[in-house]
Amino acid sequence: MNTPHNIYIHVPFCVAKCRYCAFFSRALRAPDWDTYTDRIIDEIGHFSGILGRISVPTVFFGGGTPSLMPPKKFATIMDAIYKHFDVAPYAEITIEANPGTLDNKKLGEFCAAGVNRMSVGAQSLDDEKLKFLGRIHNAYDARQLIDNGMRRGIRVSADFIYGLPGESVDDVIKICDEINRIGITHCSLYELTIEPNTPFGKMNLDMPTNDTMAEMYIAIQNNLKLPRYEVSNYAQDGFECRHNQNVWDGEPYIGIGNGAAGRIFLDATWYEELGGGKMFKPMSNDARAIERVITGMRTMRGVRTDPELKKILNIEFAKSHNDVLMFSGDRMRATDAGILVLDNLIEKLVK
Ligand code: SF4
User: Fold this and answer.
1) 119 lines ligand 1 (CB under 6 A)
2) For the chain, how many structural domains are there in total?
3) What is the pLDDT of residues 100-116, one digit of tens each?
4) 56 within some domain
């Protein structure tokens, strides 16, 4: 029996590009959903030919804007996944949703097609800030969508961006208070990063200093009721995103659709894969172990220190830096101080 694989499906279309966005997505008012769905189904068939009838613990539709997709097309893709793979009975099936694209009726249709978790791209609950970010929705739309999801009893997460030009630590505390009041069980808070080749990248924005950003990050941990379980992710116990946790923990996953990446494990070999059939090449165990350090160390449970990992770890460094690193059972993780210098720490951890 082949190893279970999680599935990520990329939907690379958006109504309009947000001003900060460097994700693989295109602004298209009327994507060709028939062609797109056919391609995704072809890829599902292709991977089932390679991997056989594997078990699938999670399916994640990310983007882009998957909530733009007609629910019937979503259901067709899910049918293909059920046809080719053994989807676990309590599989987590997530859709990323942009509040400007999903009313309650359409959300109900996605839920009927299997969605049991929704990640809402709220980004802010301040209309001026949403306009500045180039979002297509207002704060009311975001609240409505979150409330609709919660009323339907599915798991709801919301994404927020902080550290906008002119924002202070108090603004971040205000976001935390709003999230606490809403009572969602999962949220992601991302620091605004300015990417080249985006409208923001050309605007010479007056961003908060690194010290202020670090204070904001600490303020989140001190004010949000949900505990942090990854650098930018917070959840009530048991409500973590299983898909992302599996991927960060080094489990294999199939990336389907243009712009999706996957890591396939087949006949004791890891393969690097790019959705759309662009790439499928073997990778060394060392390269895969380094990836596991990079993703696992971002999580609060840390990375499993199994024999593969020990081969690439700078053990001496790890043992002599207990201010930034700690060991618990078979896992190694960053301390609160370590999380603040994570990139540097990971660089030194790998031989
Ligand atoms: S909705 Fe998301 S993927 Fe689309 S442009 Fe905005 S940030 Fe980028």
Assistant:
1) no
2) 2
3) 899 999 999 999 999 99
4) yes
